């Protein structure tokens, strides 16, 4: 198993690079972006530093890669955070200077399309952090969710083990960014039922790997994922986006991972609560519940076929739903199927 490097953590007062490695949405919704920046300053004590493409609406893949490489190379920068996700970050990866990044490891925060960079850093042996983009949890209407804020603060500043907790509430209906009046209004939330544990009742420990399932599928198709044996004893993280893939597509991706000889190597599988609403698919509560149940059944089916000894946990607060807890990709995790506790090392 390759040794993973935990980059040095920033401290309050440090400079943090804010990049747009995917979509240039800070140019489209500057007020939302500025709200996230202000919270980084006021609540976390960090100094955001923008690069040439951070507010560019249509920067090329090469230009975005240059900013990523420059942010890692800059000795005055202590951490790197994505503004938002998108859908084409996979085109950026081949333009990166891996020697520079490997020689200057820094904590990187992002999720969704940033699964590309998380996987790339994993391949370079650098622990990176799934979650924490500027325009999502940081720019949440009203205030950051307390669980999101505490998790991000711990991941940013506090080394050592951190126990994840199941949130008492959750949401997947974000405010409309086009409506400035909603900046001060929290998004709608619903009671949460907690995590669902399945599979063997045992304790497993290993490095985390994964992210947004749709992006993982693209990376697998492009041959940009490590060989199956690299994942022996790892803990797989899965969550899905506002694209709301069908249960069949979720199953097909996991089935392909199984046939690749990959899925069965994971000791545990952690699954985020599926986002089941978007502005173009405004599902009712009943439709949301049905969608989530179908996705769980699809994942359960694939895990039973290819990884029957894996501990399986559903409905974590990660990724595209609110609140959002941070996971260290490549970092250590403990999944206790007996006591039903999950800890990660930040």
Provide the fold topology:
Layout: E1 15-19, H1 30-44, E2 47-50, H2 61-73, E3 77-82, H3 98-103, E4 108-110, H4 115-123, E5 128-130, H5 146-157, E6 161-163, E7 169-170, E8 190-191, E9 196-198, E10 203-212, H6 213-221, E11 235-239, H7 247-259, E12 268-272, H8 285-306, E13 311-316, E14 327-329, E15 332-336, E16 341-345
Parallel strand pairs: 1-2, 1-3, 3-4, 4-5, 10-11, 11-12, 12-13
Antiparallel strand pairs: 5-14, 6-16, 7-8, 9-13, 10-15, 15-16
Helix pairs in contact: 7-8
Structure description:
By secondary structure, the chain is an alpha/beta fold. The protein has 2 domains: 15-160, 3-Layer(aba) Sandwich (Rossmann fold), CATH 3.40.50.10740; 169-345, Glucose Oxidase, domain 1, CATH 3.50.30. It contains 8 helices and 16 strands. The strands form 3 sheets. Strands 6-16-15-10-11-12-13-9 form an 8-stranded mixed β-sheet. Strand 3 (77-82), helix 3 (98-103) and strand 4 form a beta-alpha-beta unit. The longest helix has 22 residues, at 285-306.
CATH topology of the largest domain: Glucose Oxidase, domain 1
First-residue to last-residue Cα separation: 19 Å
The named CATH superfamily of the largest domain: LD-carboxypeptidase A C-terminal domain-like
Number of strands: 16
**Pairing-aware structural class of the strands and helices?**
alpha/beta
**What low-confidence regions span 5 or more consecutive residues with pLDDT below 50?**
none
Series of secondary-structure elements, N-terminal to C-terminal: EHEHEHEHEHEEEEEHEHEHEEEE
Integer average pLDDT: 97
Radius of gyration in whole Å, from Cα?
Answer: 19 Å
Strand order of the largest sheet: 6-16-15-10-11-12-13-9
Structural domain tally:
2
- Bin the helical content: 25-40%
CATH architecture of the largest domain: 3-Layer(bba) Sandwich
Q: Give the overall shape, derived from the CA principal axes.
A: globular
């Amino acid at each position: 198993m390759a040794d993973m490097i935990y980059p040095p953590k920033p401290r309050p007062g440090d400079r943090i690079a804010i990049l747009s490695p995917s979509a240039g949405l800070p140019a489209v919704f500057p007020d939302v972006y500025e709200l996230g920046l202000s919270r980084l300053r006021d609540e976390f004590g960090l100094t955001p530093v923008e690069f040439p493409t951070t507010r560019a609406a249509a920067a090329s893949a090469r230009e975005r890669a240059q900013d990523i490489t420059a942010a890692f190379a800059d000795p005055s920068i202590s951490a790197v955070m994505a503004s938002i996700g998108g859908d084409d970050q996979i085109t950026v990866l081949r333009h990166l200077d891996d020697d520079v990044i490997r020689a200057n490891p820094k904590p990187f925060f992002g999720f969704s399309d940033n699964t590309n960079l998380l996987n790339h850093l994993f391949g370079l042996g650098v622990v990176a952090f799934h979650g924490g983009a500027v325009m999502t949890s940081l720019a949440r209407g009203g205030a950051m969710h307390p669980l999101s804020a505490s998790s991000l603060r711990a991941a940013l500043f506090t080394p050592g083990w951190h126990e994840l907790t199941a949130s008492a509430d959750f949401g997947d209906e974000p405010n409309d960014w086009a409506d400035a009046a909603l900046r001060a209004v929290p998004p709608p939330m619903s009671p949460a039922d907690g995590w669902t544990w399945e599979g063997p009742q045992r304790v497993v420990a290993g490095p985390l790997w994964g992210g947004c399932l749709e992006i993982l599928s693209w990376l697998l198709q492009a041959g940009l994922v490590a060989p199956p044996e690299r994942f022996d004893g790892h803990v797989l993280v899965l969550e899905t986006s506002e694209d709301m893939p069908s249960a069949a597509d979720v199953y097909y991706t996991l089935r392909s991972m199984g046939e690749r000889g990959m899925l069965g190597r994971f000791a545990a599988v952690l699954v985020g609560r599926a986002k089941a609403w978007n502005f173009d698919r405004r599902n009712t509560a009943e439709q949301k519940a049905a969608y989530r149940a179908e996705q769980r059944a699809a994942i359960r089916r694939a895990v039973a076929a290819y990884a029957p000894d894996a501990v399986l946990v559903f409905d974590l607060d990660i990724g595209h739903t609110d609140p959002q807890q941070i996971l260290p990709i490549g970092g250590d995790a403990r999944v206790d199927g007996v006591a039903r506790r999950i800890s990660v090392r930040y």
